[in-house]
Amino acid sequence: MVKWTAHAKAQLRHIHDYIAQDSPLYAKRVSEAMVQKTMGLDELPRKGHKVPELNDDAVRELGLYSYRIVYEIKPDQLIEVLAVIHKRRHLMPEEIPRPE
User: Fold this and answer.
1) Fewest C-beta in 10 Å: which of 25, 33, 69, 77?
2) Which letter, b or e, does each residue of 49-80 get, where b requires 16 or more Cβ atoms within 10 Å of its Cβ?
3) What are the pLDDT digits (tens) for 22-35?
4) From CA 27, how far away is CA 1, in angstroms rounded?
């Protein structure tokens, strides 16, 4: 099961709203593509790359457009999407909230 955290959903909403200022259609496509990219991660959880800034094998990322979709592999085939971050932004480990 793939679950988006409240933090990741808020970031996705912010990205959507920012893109929608210029193109509501493209904003919808980008948002939907990001969600679609995470589907199936519960079956192939190691599909993404390890996040170098965190150095934790359970925290991985997928790239899409100019964004990094950061997720954590939890027990029992649960995948939690933790954050959606622009690739050019320097990622600080404390910016990734990890629910217990």
Assistant:
1) 25
2) eebeebeeeebbbbebeebbbbbbbeeeeebb
3) 999 999 999 999 99
4) 25
